Amino acid sequence: MEFGEEGLLLEPVSPGGQFFNSTVLSLAIISVLETQVPINDSQTFSLLKNVFLPINPRFSSIMVEGVDEKNKQWKRVQVKVEDHVHVPIFTSGMSLESYDTYFDEYITKIASETFPQSRPLWELHLFKYPTSHAAGHIIFKIHHALGDGYSLMGALLSCLQNAHNPSLPLTFPSLKGAKNETSSRSRVFEFVPKILSAVINGAWDFSWSILKGTWVEDDRTPIRSGVDGVEFRPVSMSTLMLSIEEIKLIKNKLGVTINDVIAGTIFLGTRMYMQRMNSEKSSSQNCTALVLLNTRLAAGYKSVQEMLMEPSKSSWGNQFVFLHVPVPKSSEVSNPLDFVWEAQKIVKRHRSSSAWYLTIRLWDILKKFRGAEAVAGYIHSTLINSSMAITNMIGPVEQMALADHPIKGIYFMVVGSPQSLTITAMSYMGKLRIAMGAEKGFIDSNKLQACMKDAFRVISEAAN
Q: How far apart are CA 287 and CA 281, in angstroms?
């Protein structure tokens, strides 16, 4: 760290922060909190100043050029909170359907806007009109340079309380897997082939990821327009709700994980949509999903203070890589459950290979010799050459509240990616919310949503 010309402390921007706020790539995360009661914004400014800004210095900093012109730095500035808060005004007394339309249009608008680099990279939007989903919507838009979903969820939780008993902490579903009772001798015999498999698969997967990040691209399909500048096109957002208990029933029947069921549903849903829009070709077209893998060693969310104190396990920032997962072709599977089993097999193989570690090292080497812009260009090519990105987060089991506003629903979306489709999933209060950010005018969001619902229904019926 060093001091700038105004005496303010300068902190180096992490590599990920530089990658995601460059001339070729600029990503942001939009989090939507659906309130159970109408929004009272009388405490907004005081909460932002006294609770939100102190969470992390980056919320009060701008990104500036470093001394060596290759590494950027965070510079602390005076924050004018009123510049970051937006409250749209519409005609009052209209129908819920009208406000649904206004909300969708407003989300599309803020998703397409870029952050001014002259002030800290976050915004708060208060949509104070009732829709068919909620009495009001609190929308946080935060630049990906500030941190990934794990970091920002930790920050958000610092502002939220248990709605029914604020003195009790929010809890999350356990991330621990079943205990392995295999004998030590069996584990020894299993260890060597697993290492060899990881090395071989890692070499292949890493080589393939390089090809996908340079010149090998997916087919152009109903979910991939493949046009230049797709990241600047309007995005429409739609969501659907699934029952965690029903997902668990499928999981137990098939002997897979919850994530396998979710991935299988998304894969089948996208194939169903592709066939509905282009039935002749879509069953055999090449389609790759970039599944985001959190590379932290920690299980479960940490507080911001813990993230800053334990950099080796759960540090703040961007700590993830992409897994290149081919979407199963309808022409190669015989029943809907094959999508779940294929998802399990492919994702498990990619997670256990060394490709993700080699990818991180590649980014480090590229940054060292060619700079952060070169890495950003490589990531941009990786994204645009694939068909969609999939990421998920785990939310609290209990209901949350923000400044005495009970939250009835929550979802998030990554915007600014050079792809026609981004899919996110988040659990909360026993429900799974799947959100789809689709290129407006190219993907029919209503039909895609219907196909996702049909896919889950078909998988559920087949499992039972």
A: 12
